[in-house]
Amino acid sequence: MTEMFEVKRVKVPSVLTVDTGPSGFLAWRVDESSADPQVVPAERNAVRASRAVRLACSTLVAQEQPGIFKRLAAAGEDLLEKALNDFDACSCSCCQATARTVQEQERSADGTSLVTHKCIHPYPATEKCPAECVARDADHSLEKEQFVSRGAALDYGRYCFHHCVPTMMINGGSCSLPEQLAQQRQNASVLPSAVDSAWHPDLEMAKEAQPSPPPVVMPKEVPLATKEEAEMKEITWDLRAIRAQRDRAEEAAAMARAVYDAERVKLHTHEIKRTAKMLDRVKKSVSQDAKSYEPEVLKAKANASAAGDAAVETYNVLKKAKAQLRKVRQETREVARKMLVEATAAAAQSEAESYVRRLHQDDTPAYRRQVANAASLPYVTTASTGRERESQYLGVAEEDERRAREAEIKMDALDKQAKELQIAGDRVAAGMMKREATSWRHQAEDAKASAERNRATAAAARKSAIGWQHAAEDASEHVAHMYDLSVATTPTPPPLVAIPLPPAFR
Fold it and tell me: What percent of the chain is modeled with pLDDT above 70?
């Protein structure tokens, strides 16, 4: 069933015609009667079209007509801009031809030729040709294949592959609609209705799952609805004319691109010829410049002769330098003699200072005692440490003896109590007292043994400290004796003798 929509057409004083449809959206097309046939209508005067649409919408809102025009005015400027900037519609003008692979090549429908090229969407996507588009026509089944509702975005590459054919079988060529489809769009009588070809997954499932609903009796409409219906009947919405005009615009764009590619080929050919001519000119110029090299060669020879004269002058200067060399040698000898005398004086002064240090002539009278004390200091330190250890061990031994005496006193008291209990007849208590007395006796014996060991260790520490003290005295005497020997046996330094000069400076 074909449903016809009636709209009210508003003519704008420009090449653009604005149509207002029943759904509240705007559709625009180019009036070819006033346009240049050689210019692509879909890509011309975008600014003038935008201004014309805004002027028309402002005129409609100013009239304040009832019904659909009030709803259209309330939609806002964003809706008008969305309807105007309809650049996301699928078009073969955004597709590009490329070669098929061996597996993709196939025969044509009539079987007379081999299809070697296909249409693809060029990469990367641009604002004019995005990665997705909306197919405004109904001559395809891509929406059904991709399981999307009608009017949703489709993959531009699939649209180019299934819906467009190459205009020229070359890589990078333009694409257009097939000839049969273009003829059908020009002949609007053979096109199906947009309502008949609409498809949606939910609608398809509803058709399969639910039975057809019974006819519904429509109630009698009120006078207001009758007025709106009369207003809707006054509107004419020629979708097929707009579609045919858009297809013609796409075909014209494809032809324009083909002409543009041909012009680019001509331009490249002209550039190649121009470059060849420039190379010929360069070759001639080089041959002419080669003839002008002879004066430069003569100039180089003159420079070489001048360089020879400079070499002769340099040789004469060298001879003069050799003549003056004797005088320079005599002056050099005098300077070297002065340097040797100064070096000898510095060496003699250093030797004298070293002799004074070896004889300790710069030391104080107490330096001998300081050296002896420094030599015996480790021994004295060890001896004092031994004395400290002796006093510590003696203190520990005295503490052990005190504990032994206390243990013996407690042992005697317990033995006395045990005897009294035994006389009284309490043998158990007497046995316990005896065992405790035995324990105190053992503690006393251990304390006495520890005291003896500590006293023996203290005696050994005292003996060792005495030995270290004797060693400190011996070390001090030995160091003092060696110091005396080193000072007394130091030989007298030899007299200073002038160092003879080398033979070269005599």
Answer: 60
